[in-house]
């Protein structure tokens, strides 16, 4: 039997639960990224979080001692704004979201509007209220297209689990009667946007993350290789449970990031 060995010329790396927990760097993350930079292995960070700008994310990584640039970061906000700009250049957009989403919309050449938009674009918004919900639903009922940055229902935070973009989206969907186009993981839209930015094809790129239902499922949806790290959500004692929910399995499992470093180093010879 012939074993097909997949090339490794690029990596798409999750952040929360893979590189850091909140403001705390995960052990060996700095050495992992230093290895990639030294070895010249192309990578992008891929995050479902739409609230922070790529500059904010790079600053957070730098504060943890990890060399980082805004261009290293692909957010669901950037992928969502690019998706809309490709469908309808210069579209008007009603935004439910935070700074990262608003900036991405403007940078994509779209117009933020409070009235009669072509698109309702919704992410996490910690100032979300009934008046914003009522406007969004009105526009969706009037025929605006509805795009959601990411489907996460809950977010792990330093104060425990809190509602994510998907929970806000559930209220828009219930009242507006329209399912959104979902951009973030497990959707292939964010992955294809990130592959484009990386300048690599799915066939020689690997996705690394801690979440079976988002990272590993998105890797499968986009045709990339997949490496699960047990540094965040998934642990050896809940792996089977999450594998069943995600309906997929990773190509490789690494318990810690030093194990991942060795794997990449052996695989690529860096
Ligand atoms: Mg994660």
From TrEMBL:
It comes from the Bacteria. Keywords: Hydrolase, Magnesium, Metal-binding. Its cofactor is Mg(2+). InterPro entries: HAD-like_sf, HAD-SF_hydro_IIA, HAD-SF_hydro_IIA_hyp1, HAD_sf. Its EC number is 3.1.3.-. One of its GO terms (molecular function) is hydrolase activity. Catalyzes the dephosphorylation of 2-6 carbon acid sugars in vitro. Belongs to the HAD-like hydrolase superfamily. NagD family. PANTHER family: 4-NITROPHENYLPHOSPHATASE-RELATED, D-GLYCEROL 3-PHOSPHATE PHOSPHATASE. This is Acid sugar phosphatase. It comes from Paenibacillus harenae. The lineage of its organism: Bacteria, Bacillati, Bacillota, Bacilli, Bacillales.
